Amino acid sequence: MLSENIHRKCIYVNNWSPVKTTEVFDTYWRFAAERQSIFLKRFKCEKAPWTKDSILRTYKFTNAYRASDRVSQFLIKHVIYEGEQDSSEVLFRIILFKTFNKIETWKLLTEELGEISWREYDFRVYDRILTRYKKEKRAIYSPAYIMPSGGSSFGHNLKHRNHLKLIEKMMNDNLSARITYAKTMQKVFELLRGYPMIGDFLAYQYATDINYSSLTNFSEMTFVMPGPGAKDGIQKCFSDWGGLNEIDLIRLVADRQEDEFARLGLHFQKLWGRPLQLIDCQNLFCEVDKYARIAHPAIMGISGRTRIKQKFRPNTDYIDYFYPPKWKINDYIKCALSGNNL
């Protein structure tokens, strides 16, 4: 179990000077390796339990790779690559889906409207559907992160109305073309960051989601922006940052991942040859922050949180895994499922 191995001393020298790490730093790598192992066991339809680690068996954690999570998989396959591939239509679908970040809300809209289309968009129709859903006491937003209400920006008393107006503004600003012409992922981040209710965290998440599509084609190793959870995890992993900032530390972790797995004698199974990217390392800091609340209760982060809210409940719905075609790993998945090698 990870939680049983956290105090073991490694015979290798942790050469991060002048940066100083804590015991949570080694847990970061053990967590990444074990969480990816669980993912691959579930991918192969192996029977539970998929790990001996009591914390991972009890609480909910995201995958080591962000794109492997259920919501990201739905976004990639059913939102981005199903439907018209015109840039404005793709952007509309992405922003609409990610605003609520909930598969059930997307399915509700498609059941009511058929094809989701900016060309056919009508605020009154979308508002009527979402308002009715809320009146039935059903959640339309994911609890994964808190979305600001936006009342001061657009003047509506219901949050979803303000978000619909925000999406309208983005689309009417011809944001899809501006994103398509952007030269860097950071520029896409800055374009998104300029809108009301879009802070650093959401802008980075949206830029990453857009980059799954054909609108942009940036390496995920070119830009990163840590969210609040990642900042907590970084605080727990490093006792002295050696003059670096959070972005520097995420980059170092991504760059040195193979050395760190080797140092700890861990067999990390890449995503069909794809190493962890900056977005994945950022997310892993967020997840190890949660894990450390149980495994390392004496080491506190910025928020001071001590509990993990969400318990693990396995979802048995089958995922037909599909990643952005430009990553060139989908053929490897087909071969893995058929038992063949490329």
If you had to describe this structure to a student in words, what would you say it looks like?
This protein is an all-alpha fold. The protein folds into two domains: 2-67 and 226-315, no CATH class; 82-211, no CATH class. The chain is 52% helix and 1% strand. Helix 2 packs across helix 16. The longest helix has 21 residues, at 23-43. The model is unreliable at 3-13 (pLDDT under 50).
How do the strands line up in the largest sheet?
A: 1-2
Count of beta strands = 2
Q: State the helical fraction.
A: 40-55%
Strand content bin: under 5%
Alpha-carbon Rg, integer: 21 Å
Counted by DSSP, the helix tally is 17
What is the mean pLDDT? 92
The unreliable regions are: 3-13
What is the H/E order?
Answer: HEHHHHHHHHHHHHEHHHH
Oligomer: single chain
Domains, number: 2
Distance between the termini: 34 Å
Task: Sketch the major β-sheet.
Answer: 2 strands, antiparallel
Question: SSE layout and pairings?
Answer:
Layout: H1 2-5, E1 20-21, H2 23-43, H3 54-58, H4 70-80, H5 87-100, H6 103-113, H7 123-135, H8 151-154, H9 159-172, H10 175-180, H11 185-193, H12 200-211, H13 228-237, E2 238-240, H14 246-255, H15 257-263, H16 278-295, H17 330-338
Antiparallel strand pairs: 1-2
Helix pairs in contact: 2-16, 5-9, 7-9, 11-12, 13-16
Key terms for this structure?
two-stranded antiparallel ribbon, 342 residues, 2 strands, 2 domains, 52% helix
